[in-house]
Amino acid sequence: MKKMLIHGGKKLSGSVVIGGAKNSTVALIPAAILSRTPVTLDSVPQIQDVYNLMDILEAMNVHSTFEDCVLHIDPTQIKEVPLPEGKIKSLRASYYFMGALLGRFGSANVALPGGDDIGPRPIDQHIKGFEALGATVTNEHGAMVLHAPKEGLHGARIYLDMVSVGATINIILAAVTAKGQTILENAAKEPEIIDLATYLNNMGATIRGAGTDVIRIEGTPELHAQNTHTIIPDRIEAGTYLSMAAAMGDGVNVKNIISEHLDSFLAKLEEMGVVMDVGEDSIFVYPSGDLRMVQIKTMPYPGFATDLQQPITPLMLKAQGEGIIVDTLYPKRVRHVPELIRMGADITVENDVIILHHADKLQGTEVAATEIRGGACLMIAGLMAEGDTTITHVGHILRGYDRVIQKLHGLGADVEIIDDVDADEPMNV
Ligand SMILES: CC(=O)N[C@H]1[C@@H](OP(=O)(O)OP(=O)(O)OC[C@H]2O[C@@H](n3ccc(=O)[nH]c3=O)[C@H](O)[C@@H]2O)O[C@H](CO)[C@@H](O)[C@@H]1O
Ligand SMILES: C=C(OP(=O)(O)O)C(=O)O
């Protein structure tokens, strides 16, 4: 089992460059199989989710190569095969192969996805969308089996019961080659959805309205990638480094940022009293003075992202007063709380509400990264703490944070990954 060892207490300075968005990348890679020509992606983050998706592609005879943030995918010799457990279970976004295979072959057999344990993550809206397009969907021994009718999928009007990133993307992937028009209402508006639409439109698709809550798709029989697609910067990685910089920085420049994607997060930092210079594509964070406590409620984009509630928590521990965090998307996303308590934080969970108070100092100890953003939270807490912090199950962090050790070293952090061959590997890593 890999662990992260942090010698805490060192001030951070210098600059860090944000990679391509994980949540775009993990949709763009499955979407590549819709193209009849080879696909090239640029600004691809070096994260375990990408390597796992490449293995899944290989199982379909889709060869890919990944070097210097450029990923080449050749789907021209693709074979339709069932995608069983194993790699599919290693990440959440493997469910995008349901929509992509349905769009490409009119059928799919994909094991139920895995991913982080952040509370219940149903896929009823994905299924509702596929069915509206004419597909039959059955669960056969833990695998989702999907079939389009003989005449192929048809466009439909679909209203999502709740705003879902995954369902919006999966329905786009299936509808993009269906006959006729699909109108998706109450769609998610995340920037990663606009990125996907741009990528597919450049292959010949007609998707309008991405980034609003009504997306209109005119089906196109075949897609052909022609240009390299550069993935948007990762707003969650950016938010993580901004929070880290405000908590432990002595002047840190976070580069490759689209600041508009972080509006709600930046507003919260400002409310806390964090001083920043927001440039065209970078944000400089000044050393923090006294910070004010805030209340946070996570919401779908453009609201405060659930994926940033944990990374901002250690910063809040530096502020005076009582802070409150309510995660409306994933109320059970609180497994970092007992770990923070073990580091000396004054933080509790009552009826799914996280309540926290100022901590004069945190103390290094061994803690577990139970999921990706919980891991990021502990990483920042470890950098702030006195003494050594060991984070176990660090695979959760590495699956989604691009070259994290290299980036932390660039900021002057004293951190390393160690291999503990004797340790057990529970918690789905
Ligand atoms: C790979 C990826 O992009 N992951 C992101 C994506 O996950 P993911 O796409 O899985 O999250 P969704 O946007 O679908 O989930 C939003 C809410 O809707 C619920 N829901 C969703 C689908 C469904 O069929 N039924 C249902 O009830 C979920 O339980 C959750 O409460 O968006 C989440 C919310 O911003 C982020 O935390 C994840 O980082
Ligand atoms: C929950 C997350 O990812 P996933 O949907 O891939 O599990 C995340 O990125 O915070």
UniProtKB/TrEMBL annotation:
Keywords attached to this entry: Cell cycle, Cell division, Cell shape, Cell wall biogenesis/degradation, Cytoplasm, Peptidoglycan synthesis, Transferase
Compartments it resides in: Cytoplasm
A matching Pfam family: EPSP_synthase
GO biological process terms held by the UniProt record: cell division; cell wall organization; peptidoglycan biosynthetic process; regulation of cell shape; UDP-N-acetylgalactosamine biosynthetic process
Main location: cytoplasm
Keyword Cell wall biogenesis/degradation: yes
A GO CC term assigned to this protein in UniProt: cytoplasm
EC number(s) on file: 2.5.1.7
Catalytic site: D116
Sites where the protein binds phosphoenolpyruvate: K22, N23
SUPFAM superfamilies in alphabetical order: EPT/RTPC-like
GO-annotated molecular function: UDP-N-acetylglucosamine 1-carboxyvinyltransferase activity
Pathway field: Cell wall biogenesis; peptidoglycan biosynthesis
Disulfide bond in keyword set: no
Catalytic activity annotation: phosphoenolpyruvate + UDP-N-acetyl-alpha-D-glucosamine = UDP-N-acetyl-3-O-(1-carboxyvinyl)-alpha-D-glucosamine + phosphate
Enzyme class, first EC level, given as a word: transferase
Role this protein plays: Cell wall formation. Adds enolpyruvyl to UDP-N-acetylglucosamine.
PANTHER family, per the entry: UDP-N-ACETYLGLUCOSAMINE 1-CARBOXYVINYLTRANSFERASE, UDP-N-ACETYLGLUCOSAMINE 1-CARBOXYVINYLTRANSFERASE 2
Similarity annotation: Belongs to the EPSP synthase family. MurA subfamily.
Protein name: UDP-N-acetylglucosamine 1-carboxyvinyltransferase
Organism, as annotated: Lacticaseibacillus manihotivorans DSM 13343 = JCM 12514
Gene: murA
